[in-house]
Design a protein that fits this description.
Elements: H1 16-30, H2 35-46, H3 52-63, H4 70-92, E1 97-98, E2 101-102, H5 104-108, H6 110-131, H7 134-157, H8 165-190, H9 195-222, H10 225-228, H11 234-238, H12 243-251, H13 254-266, H14 272-281, H15 284-302, H16 310-323
Antiparallel strand pairs: 1-2
Helix pairs in contact: 1-4, 2-6, 3-4, 3-8, 3-16, 4-6, 4-8, 7-8, 8-9, 9-15, 9-16, 12-13, 12-15, 15-16
Bound molecules: geranylgeranyl diphosphate.
């Protein structure tokens, strides 16, 4: 079973220096002669972020013996794609807070945010071409297409209290887990892994990404705005039927169920304290965390296919932290 962070061994980070090189490369590749692009892309990238997707590229390529410069480029590419999706998502969701500061849409407006997201996205494709490998282009073209499908599916599911859990899981696989999957797969592609190892890497990314989004959805109810760097309760305000609400409805009595249905249908954040109480009382938060833990455990089990070493240990640590995180 997965260990908790308190008892997990703290290991030295095998990609610390490579991550510094990725950060430098990100700054270099961000450059544009257009001042507003520099300003907004610097604003969001400079705010930090956990850099999980680049870590996946680097840890899989390291574990599989590739340490060439293409890994740094691919790590920067997945962070650019991730950042483009955040810029677009915050416009779609009308979010006000991200990474502990005003979202780019709140600070610079929707149009500027969407267009700078387009810049980052297309810069990522220029960088892919520079890597010169059709397989890399294929993996990332497929991934970005699926991410966009996930976001549209989610839009179709808004305000639907009857959403099936399987359909919810499909959306999070598409919108979030797909980029985790592509990042891990690209590390394996660089490491010229045999097909079964590449597939295990991809499934690792998919399972970890699913665990990660389940916790994201959980933290929207039980997290703290200061730690999260974004506003809790945003999902409810938008009428997003996420797993904590779907499970609470399955478990609650008729009156509480009706209250949650109504909140999803109308997007009522004023009812957050009442809904939080129901979600807690019915055990829906623990059940969501346990669904995430199962996904993380699946990811962990796939690591057996990688050679033992510091990179594999760091991937194991990512599994643990994806479930026991507060930001
Ligand atoms: C531009 C390809 C493209 C698509 C646009 C808007 C959209 C379609 C997709 C949005 C997908 C999305 C934002 C999914 C949520 C993913 C998620 C969990 C984001 C938060 O990731 P963290 O916690 O963020 O890793 P940090 O800030 O740490 O980098």
């Amino acid at each position: 079973m997965l260990d908790t962070p308190a008892s997990a061994a703290v290991t030295a980070d095998p990609i610390e220096s490579a991550m510094r090189q990725v950060d430098a490369l990100i700054r270099e590749r961000l450059r544009s002669e257009v001042a507003l692009i520099d300003q907004i892309s610097g604003y969001i990238i400079g705010a930090g972020g956990k850099r999980i997707r680049p870590r996946l590229v680097l840890l899989f390529s390291e574990a599989l013996g590739h340490v060439g410069p293409a890994r740094l480029e691919l790590a920067a590419i997945v962070e650019f794609i991730h950042t483009a999706t955040l810029l677009h998502d915050d416009v779609v969701d009308e979010s006000a807070l991200r990474r502990g500061r005003a979202t780019a849409n709140a600070a610079f407006g929707n149009a500027a945010s969407v267009l700078v997201g387009d810049f980052l996205y297309s810069r990522a494709f220029q960088m892919m071409v520079s890597v010169g490998r059709m397989r890399v282009l294929e993996v990332l073209a497929d991934a970005t297409n699926v991410i966009a499908e996930g976001e549209v599916l989610q839009l179709m599911n808004m305000h639907d209290p009857d959403l099936a859990v399987d359909e919810y899981l499909r959306v999070i696989r598409y919108k979030t887990a797909k980029l985790f999957e592509a990042s891990a797969r690209l590390g394996a592609v660089l490491g010229e892994a045999p097909p079964e190892v590449e597939e295990a890497a991809a499934e690792f990314g998919r399972s970890l990404g699913t665990a990660f989004q389940l916790i994201d959805d959980l933290l929207d109810y039980e997290g703290h705005t200061d730690e999260l760097g974004k506003n809790v309760g945003d999902d409810l305000r938008e009428g997003k039927p996420t797993l904590p609400l779907l499970l609470a409805m399955e478990r609650a009595g008729a009156d509480d169920r009706a209250l949650i249905r109504d909140a999803i249908e109308h997007g009522e954040v004023q009812r957050l304290p009442q809904i939080l109480e129901i979600v807690r009382r019915t055990g829906a938060l623990e059940a969501t965390r346990s669904a995430a833990a199962q996904q993380a455990e699946r990811a962990r089990s796939l690591l057996a296919l990688l050679p033992a070493g510091a990179a594999r240990e760091a991937l194991l640590e990512l599994c643990v932290r994806s479930v026991h995180r507060s930001s």
